Amino acid sequence: MESAVKIIICDTEGVSPSVAENLPFITESDRKAAAEYKKESDRVSRLFSAYLKRKYIGEWRISKSGKPVAKGKYFNISHCGGAVVLAIADADVGVDAERPRKTSDDLIARVAKGEECEKAGAGGFLRVWTLKESLVKAQGDGIRGDLRDVPALPENGVKTYGGEKYFSYVAEYKDFTVAVTRKGEEPFSVEMQREKIFG
Predict the structure, then answer these.
(1) Helix 28-35 to helix 40-56 angle, to the nearest 10 degrees?
(2) Mean pLDDT, to the nearest integer, of 105-119?
(3) Residue 123: what pLDDT?
(4) What share of the chain in percent tops pLDDT 70?
(5) Measuring CA to CA, how many Å separate 186 from each of 157, 169, 179?
(6) What is the DSSP track for 62-129?
(7) Second label for 22, Cα 20 to 30 Å away, from 51, 99, 131, 185?
């Protein structure tokens, strides 16, 4: 039976920090941590991230490599302009979500090589970028060395990184590109849901 990765998306566009501070499950320490950020959008993202983790994960800690981890649960979170995304799986998982942005040949050359450059240059830059980011996050040690050496392709399929096999899947949500990568070669389905907090 195919396993599933659950993706929960919170739209944060237009939400003020004062509203986000009153989300369910938010603690005083969450509010203090969010207040450290200068940009309002970063404070809002931090609060929504805490809300999602407290609601769906419970207790967690930050590993030595900087990855949030929980006992008996595998999850990862992504912040991007206008949304916070949580992925929950039955194995190490990474998720990245991005909105359209300007790209240049120089940026593509720093991120991709070979067939990836062709895909990125043909309007697929966000797909290449999010697949690389989600793979690095699933692996858990961060980017070490050249980002071009982190495989993005195949989009929906198995790749090897750091001596381990990972399966990746990429999807669209509104104008976001969302990539999720799970440790192991087994395909998985994606259950994507929008978290409706304010109606």
Answers:
(1) 150
(2) 91
(3) 84
(4) 98
(5) 9, 12, 16
(6) E-TTS-EEBTTBEEEEEEETTEEEEEEESS-EEEEEE------HHHHHHH--THHHHHIIIIIHHHHH
(7) 99
